[in-house]
Amino acid sequence: MSLWMANFIKMNGEYLLKALPFLLKSVKILLYMAKNHFLWENNRSNMGSFIKGLGFYVPENVVKNEDFLKYMDTTDEWIQERTGIKERRYATRHKESTVSLAAEAAKKAIADAGIQASDIDFIIFATLSPDYFFPGCGVLLQRELGITGTECGALDVRNQCSGFIYALSVAHQFSSSGMYRNILVVGAEVHSMGLDYTTRGRNVSVIFGDGAGAAIVQPSSEAGQGILATCMHSNGTHAEELAFINPGCHGGRYGDIEKYGYLDEKEYGGTFLTQKMLDDALIYPNMNGQLVFKHAVQKMPEAIMEVLNKAGYKPSDLKMLIPHQANLRIAAFVQHTLRLNDSQVYNNIQKYGNTTAASIPIALTEAYQQGLFSSGDLVCMTAFGSGFTWGAVLMRWV
Ligand code: UT7
After folding, report:
1. CA quadruple 304, 310, 315, 318: dihedral positive or negative?
2. What's the structural domain count of the chain?
3. Which of the four, 69, 196, 385, 398, has the lowest number of CB atoms within 10 Å?
């Protein structure tokens, strides 16, 4: 030992002795971290993910088809015949919002997964009807759940009807890579606050409903379990055929002053929301229903076949298909194309209408709670919607 070292110990021996427990504890923590990291890295190549918990929430307020008769020229027969919808739920003003519905669904999913809200290390929130233009719903949900202290990440997904499929696919990647252990994936919508309740908007307004569904995604090291395959697609050719364009930051680029109007006296700005948009009622979603229908019945079966092929299965192997609840006739087309029987396809659009990003997690949770599938069953989910975007997820239920 050098003279310098001997002197150092002699002078600081007392302090070193006091610091010894702390040093040992630090070494122990470092060894624990290294061991965990080694195990994690070792398992990583075999890792996948699965849904550990599910939950859904819909507002109490039931709106029946007949309730629209006082606002627009429509009938219960038309709505049921063309869509299958009998009723839907609407959020209560000043009390509920997309985020509050999401929080209720999330609390149920958290309880179902047997974890605490504070265990969530990432939030993925899919919606087309956010509480605010910005910030996104993910951070508002984090606040609503009382977990701002965790400072976990929050991501908003804006893929409309296929939002939950995209969100779950992202969660699957983050989970399988070992990045997060409890990802909260939510699809939630409050459509009712922004629809056109006149005859002009009847092809859209009678279809949509409010609600939320949530899932807790965890990593899994069991081969062939949980999420087996995902696919995501888009084609922006018909972006405006199912869209909510105004207010927006497009600056009139896709139309002219004639269409949107400008506050000409202003040097900057003044195009986000113009008086003309309000006067001409250009502030509602619009949909070319027939065009969307035609693409949906083609792309949803394609997406299902893609994930089945990736995982080496065929339609008859499916225990349950959860199609996005856009229209009962679309679901029937998909079922017919894949030669599935009634017990293999779950629909609940009759009760809730089209809840966009929430429709799949709501239907998945209901089917799961009704015992329509259980551990070991092959479950597929698929969606198509605005964008156009579409996709599918195939799971071996754990
Ligand atoms: O989840 C997002 C993705 N969205 C979808 O997947 C929606 C796909 N599309 C559809 O579900 C259907 O196209 C709709 C349900 C939206 C419409 O059904 P359709 O059989 O395609 O009807 P249509 O649009 O061809 O309209 C037929 C008639 C029209 O009247 P005319 O022009 O024939 O006189 C519409 O004005 O039905 C009229 N109509 C209505 N009548 C009574 C449209 N909406 C209504 C209504 N009540 N609510």
Report:
1. negative
2. 3
3. 69
Both 91 and 145 in one domain: the answer is yes
Task: State how far Cα 292 lies from the chain centre.
Answer: 20
Q: Are strands 183-189 and 122-126 parallel, antiparallel or unpaired?
A: parallel
Query: Which single residue is written with the structure tokens 């409309």?
Result: 160
- Residue 398 CA to residue 384 CA, distance in Å, equals 26
pTM to 2 decimals?
0.89
User: pLDDT-based confidence at 34, cuts 50/70/90?
Assistant: low
Same domain flag for 250 and 392: no
Q: Are 13 and 56 in the same domain?
A: no
Share of the chain above pLDDT 90, in %: 84
Q: Is 224 helix (H, G, I), strand (E, B) or coil?
A: coil
3-state secondary structure of 168: helix
Ligand 1 close to Cβ of residue 206 (< 6 A): yes
Q: Where are the alpha helices (DSSP H) in 45-153?
A: 76-83, 98-113, 137-144
Residues 258 and 390 in one domain: no
Question: Does 194 share its domain with 126?
Answer: yes
pLDDT of 163 reads: 98
Q: Does 132 share its domain with 276?
A: no
**Are 106 and 213 part of one and the same domain?**
yes
pLDDT at 220: 94
Structural domain of residue 365, as residue ranges?
A: 48-238+286-396
Is the shortest distance between the CB of 83 and ligand 1 below 6 Å? Answer: yes
- From the CA of 196, how far away is ligand 1's center (Å)? 15
Helix (H) or strand (E) holding 305: helix 289-311
Q: How far apart are CA 279 and CA 267, in angstroms?
A: 23
Pocket test for ligand 1, best of 82, 242, 354 (most atoms within 8 A of CB): 82
Please indicate, yes or no, whether residues 196 and 326 belong to a single structural domain of this protein: yes
354 carries an active-site annotation: yes
Q: For residue range 254-308, what is the model confidence (pLDDT) as tens digits?
A: 888 889 998 877 889 999 999 999 999 999 999 999 999 999 999 999 999 999 9
160 phi/psi in degrees, rounded to 5: 50, -125
> What pLDDT score was predicted for residue 129?
98
The arithmetic mean of pLDDT across residues 15-31, rounded, is 70
pLDDT over 90 (residue 26): no
